[in-house]
Amino acid sequence: MTGLRRESKRIRDPTWDFSGENTKISIHGIHTYPAMMIPQIAKRLMEEYGKESKMNLDPFCGSGTVLVESMLHNINSYGVDINPLAILLSKVKTTPINHSELEKEFIRICDRIREARWKPEIIQKIETPNFFNIEYWFKPKVIRELSFIKQIIDNIEDEVVRNFFYVSFSETVRKVSNTRGGEYKLFRIPENKLKEWNPDALSTFLEISERNIKMMREFYSSVDIQRIQKGELWSKVLMEDMRAKTSIPENSVDFIATSPPYGDSRTTVAYGQFSRLTLQWLDYDYDIVKRIDKISLGGIRPKKIKDDVPSDTLYNTLEKISKNDGKRALDVYSFFSDFNKTVDEINRITMENAFVCIVVGNRTVKKINIPTDIILFELFEDRGYTHLKTIVRQIPSKRLPKKSSPSNIKGDAVSTMNFEYIVILKK
Ligand SMILES: C[S@@+](CC[C@H](N)C(=O)[O-])C[C@H]1O[C@@H](n2cnc3c(N)ncnc32)[C@H](O)[C@@H]1O
């Protein structure tokens, strides 16, 4: 197949832009996560290609957008991710809780916080954690306040309710840390601005919890609670690696919607860095936390490029990048070589006639555009899938780095992520 014919299957369709629409609807808005899929895309893909589906899968589920939409569409689902924060978010978002239970607990939390405001010695005396670099990332007052909130949540008996409040806590940690707002990587607020940075963790937590309870209330009223309570409607969230054999049974899935990483986490979105502070606060093992970016797709740079990925487009692209920078070519190869392994696992799990919908962005490395959408469908064609079409949408609101300096020369920025490609395949 020629390059021209492949590209001609790209269809620009502005109805997929969903420009101006609220993407934080229902339970989707309870926590930020890098490169979230907007719920409108998950919903429409499900309605156009997953109507007959009995079992959905998101192999890179992140914060669980596809899983939530599956539940709203009465379809069971599996979600897989290697990041413990993604697992927590996906589990909480697919576990509807009656708002009265949450409100009861919330009143108790408010009482404790009110008491602490009256008697500041309660917070002064609190035992604080001592994880790596905590004082660099949080002010002493914030550390005490967060420790106080964490202690209250730790004592909630019901695990489901406890996890719900851990999610509000996690969002609070992000908001009150010394990191620059709006960044997914860990950058500290500059020294001169840090002096005036005095966040109130207690109020922030209360505001976020109140908002999240409202969102859960809305979600609870939109799903089939009886089927969920009977165990007929569910979402199973698995902390596993899609490059290896997962615990999902063979031939069990008939619809996939997913937005995988866009490239290795060193040079694109660092999911590990984004999650690190929260996971440290939530007592996750630091050895696991610091390895998230390394164990993500393309996390380890190989010594050489091998001829083991069934995509001509990839090797043509690597050749061009190698001329400018051999190391970056290795990074790009590493990502697709890993992705290729996940295609084997996706193929094992999916049934005949399954639809596979993959949302990707085409990034630029060393001024060379990487046609990720084309490379991906070549990997699937190699396993006998049919590429139906690629929908091209403009990204109006997704929080992704729109500009980057691919040559690392200041001012030499190019637009990398203005368009997104939704690759539709059938097994
Ligand atoms: C673009 S995000 C998914 C966002 C998600 N669609 C959402 O709406 O929140 C990609 C996810 O892939 C996960 N990931 C990276 N390598 C993985 C692997 N080997 N196996 C499973 N998940 C992986 C990352 O941790 C990240 O959460």
| H/E series | HEHEHEHHHHHHHHHEEHHHHHEEEHEEEE
Structural class: alpha/beta
Largest sheet: 8 strands, mixed
Total count of domains? 2
Radius of gyration, CA atoms, in whole angstroms: 22 Å
Please report the distance between the alpha carbons of the first and last residues.
19 Å
CATH level-1 class of the largest domain: Alpha Beta
What is the helical fraction, as a range of percent?
Answer: 40-55%
Strand content: 5-15%
Question: Which geometry do the CA atoms define?
Answer: globular
Low-confidence stretches: 398-416
Q: What oligomeric state best describes the polypeptide chains here?
A: single chain
Mean pLDDT: 92
In order across it, which strands form the biggest sheet?
A: 1-9-12-6-5-2-3-4
Write down how many β-strands occur, each being a DSSP E stretch of 2 or more residues.
12
Could you give me the name of the CATH homologous superfamily of the largest domain?
Vaccinia Virus protein VP39
Instruction: List all distinct small molecules, including ions and cofactors, that are bound in this structure.
Output: S-adenosylmethionine
Named CATH topology of the largest domain: Rossmann fold
